[in-house]
Amino acid sequence: MHVRAAFCVLLTTLPAFQQDSTLSDVMLRVHGYVVGYEKDLSGVMSEERWVQRIVARDGQIVAERTLRSDYLVFQLPPDEDWFNFRDVFEVDGQRVADREQRFRELFTRGPSSVVEQAMKIAAENARYNLGDVYRTINVPTFVLTVLRPMNRSRFVFEKVGEESVDGTSTWIVSYKEIKKPTFIKSETGKALMSQGRLWIDPSNGRVVRTELVVGGVRSVRDRATIVVTYGPQADLGIWVPIEMTELYDKPNKPKADRISGSAIYSNFRRSDLKNRLEATR
Predict the structure, then answer these.
(1) Is the peptide bond before 181 cis (omega within 30 degrees of 0)?
(2) So what's the pLDDT on residue 122?
(3) Quick one: pLDDT at residue 101?
(4) What are phi and psi of 226, to 5 degrees?
(5) CA distance 202 to 14
(6) What angle do CA 222, 3, 37 make, to 5 degrees?
(7) Starting at the edge strand that comes first in sequence, how are the strands of the sheet with 223-233 ordered?
(8) What is the model's pLDDT at position 10?
(9) DSSP code per residue over 211-275
């Protein structure tokens, strides 16, 4: 399934006050929204159902795998970088043994221990991934970093359209990274410029959907496209990532297989991660 065809959107007419807003107005609302939103979202846990596929260029599915995981996104001081903790507990319907204990031990020490252990578990879980792509940017909240006020000068933004996403009127705003050091690097340390689109509610700056595109140019042949859709979660009182699709392809090799993925998030609840980390500071 191609990422660009993964979502159905309808054109709509925006209210007059939204039409009168400038891009600068809307981006200021976005920056303000993200500052508060990141604090609210950090430490929220969910269940992830992630279907991975290797797809031939003729559309035939070469291989398929379904993973179910406990999934946690969180930030750590002092830079408040985003980290993801994906602990796979089921692979194609079969339970993964001996994973409860390591999950309990993950947050028993300070922030440095959390990162070290989370990276170790991520490396262990990588053995379940289909294909040979090392995935490090498929974090639903990754693009929020782009929208922090301190990072605005590192990107150029442009309004490119208006759409309704699941009943919410949005502006489509493109972004492109223009300064180094870049947020994303290759496995060899090569700087990778990121770009994509944002679907933003112009009335309040809420992020409704994000798209991240990396690579696919002459110097970086492999391309990654990741789209995340947000939705309201009444129990938490905030919007949360509810779906993520990803596509890894080689646009300069038309006969190469593609790796695609589709993740659905449910069973949202708050963890006690924040309290544990604050207690260790």
Answers:
(1) yes
(2) 67
(3) 66
(4) -125, 125
(5) 9
(6) 100
(7) 94-95, 81-91, 61-76, 44-55, 258-270, 238-249, 223-233, 207-215, 194-200, 168-177, 155-165
(8) 35
(9) EEEEE-SSS---EEEEEEEEEEETTTTEEEEEEEEEEEE-TT-TTS-EEEEEEEEEEEEE-SHHH
The pTM of the full predicted model, rounded to 2 decimals, is 0.84
Fold designation for 9-280: outer membrane lipoprotein receptor (LolB), chain A (2.50.20)
Structure tokens at 157: 């933004």
Domain locations along the chain: 9-280
> What is the reported pLDDT for 6?
33
Q: How does strand 94-95 pair with strand 184-185?
A: unpaired
Report the pLDDT value the prediction gives residue 42, as an integer from 0 to 100.
83
3-state secondary structure at position 89: strand
- The angle, 0 to 180 degrees and rounded to 10, between the axes of the packed helices 111-125 and 273-280 is 130
DSSP designation for 143: G
Structure tokens at 236: 């938490």
pLDDT averaged per 10 residues, the chain (length 281): 35 47 95 91 91 91 94 72 80 83 61 65 75 80 90 95 96 96 82 94 97 79 92 94 94 85 95 57 49
